[in-house]
Structures are given as C-alpha cells and as structure tokens.
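Lecture notes, structural biology module. Today: joint structure prediction for complexes of three components.
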Amino acid sequence: MGHHCCSKHKVKRGLWSPEEDEKLFNYITAHGHACWSTVPKEAGLQRCGKSCRLRWMNYLKPDLKRGSFSVEEERIIVDVHRILGNRWAQIAKHLPGRTDNEVKNFWNSCIKKKLIAQGLDPKTHNLMPASKTSTYGGAAAAATTGNNSDEIFQSPTTAPFTISSPNKGFDRAKGFDKMAIPPTLMAPPQSNVALHDQTAVPAALSDLQCRDSHVLMSFANASSSPSLGHMNAASSSSFINDQNGFMDDCVWDSTDMEHFEALNQIEVGDKVQTCTLGNEKGLMMEAYCGFDLEMMDDSSLLPCGDFYNGGGGGGGGSMEQLQWHC
DNA sequence: AACTCAGGCAACCGCGGGTAT
DNA sequence: GATACCCGCGGTTGCCTGAGT
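The predicted structure, tokenised, for the full assembly:
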C-alpha cells in the first residue's frame, strides 16, 4: 500500500538506489520542486511525490550535515526539547544541516536513554519518581557523577532556562545582555499538563515586572506559590534568590529602548503571552505560563532574541549557544 | 563460523493544516 | 461553505550492521 497521494500509481517502495538518487538530485537541482507530486513523473522515477520529498529532505539536500552529533548539538537538542517537546522539525531548525528525522532518531536512540539513565523523564525532563526510575534501571545516581557530555542532561530544577542569540537584531555590547528565564516560564503546553502539580502556575507569573534602570523582574506570590518552589530551586543559579521571588540577577539595560520597543509585543499565538514593556518611565512586563510554542517559529520567536544567562555558572545555562532564528 | 540480539537509520504511514477550486 | 489536493510533520516500522556469544 502506497501513500494515499499515489495509491493509483505503481510506485516503488523501500530503499533508494544510487540511480534513483541521481535522477532525483539532478532533477531537483535543475528544476527545483515547485510541486512534489509532479516531481517523480518529471524526473522519471517510479516513486510517489511524498517519497521523493522525503528522500530529498533527509538525504540528498546539498546542505545536509552528515555524521554523528556533536556534544553541542546534543546539548541544543536537549534544551530545545525541554521547551518544545517532540517538535522535531522545530528542533531541527536550530541545528543547521540536520533534519527532523535525524534529530528524532538521535533522540530516540541515544538521548532518551541517557535521560532515563539519569533518572529524568524524557518527556518532561523532570526527575522521575524513584520507583519509576528504578523501573528504567535505577541509574539515577549516575546523574550526579557525570563529567562528560552527560552533563548535558541536567535536571531542569537546577538549570535555569536561558536563551542566547548573539547575532540577531541586537548588539550585545550595547546591553540587555542578561536575562534568565526559569524553565517553568518557558514550559511548553504539554509540559504544563504533565507538570501541572509541580511547576509554575500562571497566576504566579501574572505579575512579572521589570523595573527601569536596574531592571528587576518579580513574580507576585512567588513565595506563596508551591509551584514556585521549583523556581526557587533554581536560585543556586542566581535566578531567584530571595524569598520574595525577586530575580535580582536579571539586568536589562533600559537605555537600549530600541529593544524594549521590539519586545513591546510578543504575540504568542492566540494565547498571547503578553510581554508588555512600557515606556522607559515604567517598564512593565507581564507574562504567564503556558507559552504557546509557536513562539519558537521564526518571526514570532522572541523578537528580542538576546537572552543570556550570566549567572548560570557551572554550566547552568545550557542554552547559551542556542540561536533563535528570529 | 554461525547465530542472536540490540542499536541505528531510512523510509513509510496517517494525520492535520493550508490552499485552490 | 464544502471538497479535493498537496505539503509537512510526528510516530512507527522494518531493514541493515556490528557486537557478543
């Protein structure tokens, strides 16, 4: 049974031969692929358009990077997956030359197992209950011993979420170079479901404030919300370091109003995560949990782009190298 | 050398969203 | 608005290969 789109035609399935690859490659490089459904016919292939597209995207495309994933790539995958979940195509966008299929396979065959071995739930990136951990082999203890690439797999409770975009739309030298966001703030919807009882609650984040000059961000009710115990756990990375939940390590240089302008509205799908930054007299940023992760898509991606965890220390900021395509 | 098994990878399948008619 | 078609995505399957016995 072939694809629905080509069930009427006699199509070949299975592995591609070098000849087929050559035909497809030659055709696409010469004519492009305006319509995949016509490609096989035009290229003289007994394949369906879908199959051709897949082969091109995952194998023939010239800018694909082959070979094993680097530690840095691995780190990016883990970090972005923590935010996006199984949105492989989105994750792959942060890894030039890698395909969604490649990332997915790497995740399933390698990263997932490492996370499990460290006692982390690969879906939520949270520590699994001891019983569950032991089910997976009881290797949670290994999580404390890593001094190699396994360090990538840190519990989100100890690694504040940070984003860095050194080359997009903002000159780091001008300021606005420090900002840390806890994983709870950036948690994807699916994670919210999973973490409902243990992580950020929207209400707790509804009063995020940024003050001018030496900007502070605060979460109302931070200390009273059990959910924010999770965030306070991140205080070792100087994200939140007092009982009121103030993040005094979050410094925005408000003289760079250009970027506050840019930040003025972050529309995140229809669930707007209002990120309202007012004028320089009284900056105010509102946010709540439950980010619609469409924000990770190109233009809608945090337009400011440049979040940097200056206080992460000790590898806490595992997203330093993440480049947002915005 | 032969066999088994697990891991990695490529490809397929089905679904959802977008667009044209 | 309804329908058909196409594309892109994520989940899954199955093949290939290498390590272990």
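Point to remember: The longest strand of chain A covers residues 209-210.
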